[in-house]
Backbone:
């Protein structure tokens, strides 16, 4: 029987683009706050433990006695924080165990997408991630905002999270890329850099990452709609 997953939640960003009075993962949302809602969704997978990667100067230090939490201290970039989360699993996770990495700032991830990813990731040699097909016509621009090209949206996807991989594999891949001076923006791009191709799994596009101030109201509306229609 497949062992339950481990989940790493990088939550050590400063969230400067939100221009808020606190890190965005602690902004109030839907009667709770962003990080608590994200963790609540992830717990549906009954993870062996959830590694919460917090900034050294995190003023709130999220705590939930009912959740199987392990703490780690984040680094300068998201990839460093994920690396710290992987280190915290050393001695806990087995090489073949699945580790899912999910942004703290994505509280709208749907339970059915989490389960769908969990069901396929173990069969994927290069791991898998939730993603959403691009809908709009895509333009490339110069520094002044003038179009230089139209990029075909055929087979173009938005990479979302969670992204899931075997523990030892993700450790080896991330270590190799970081040692080479790369700063992968997500785990999949570390694999890609080594010529490997993780699998994209179509998930709901409302799994947004709260990044800019307007995303906060959008996330609240998404959560309301999900509550009415079932997430
Ligand atoms: O900044 P961005 O929105 O891309 O961050 C995505 C996720 O990575 C957030 O949950 C954020 O808290 C986390 N992060 C981190 N350590 C950093 C930067 C971002 O854990 N140094």
Residues:
């Amino acid at each position: 029987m497949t062992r339950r997953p481990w989940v790493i939640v990088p939550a050590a960003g400063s969230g400067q683009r939100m221009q808020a009075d606190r890190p965005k993962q602690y902004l109030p949302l839907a009667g709770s706050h962003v990080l608590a809602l994200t963790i609540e969704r992830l717990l549906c997978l009954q993870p062996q433990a959830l590694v919460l990667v917090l900034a050294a100067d995190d003023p709130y230090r999220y705590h939930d006695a009912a959740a199987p939490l392990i703490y780690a201290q984040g680094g300068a970039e998201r990839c460093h924080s994920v690396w710290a989360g992987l280190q915290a699993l050393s001695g806990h996770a087995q090489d073949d165990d699945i580790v899912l990495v999910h942004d703290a700032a994505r509280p709208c991830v749907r339970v059915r997408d989490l389960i769908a990813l969990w069901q396929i990731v173990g069969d994927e040699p290069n791991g898998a991630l939730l993603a959403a097909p691009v809908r709009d016509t895509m333009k490339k621009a110069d520094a002044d905002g003038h179009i230089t090209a139209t990029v075909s949206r055929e087979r173009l996807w938005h990479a979302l999270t969670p992204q899931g991989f075997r523990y030892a594999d993700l450790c080896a891949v991330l270590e190799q890329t970081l040692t080479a001076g790369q700063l992968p923006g997500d785990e999949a791009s570390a694999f890609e850099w080594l010529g490997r191709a993780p699998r994209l799994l179509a998930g709901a596009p409302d799994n947004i990452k709260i990044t800019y101030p307007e995303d906060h109201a959008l996330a609240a509306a998404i959560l309301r709609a999900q509550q009415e229609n079932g997430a």
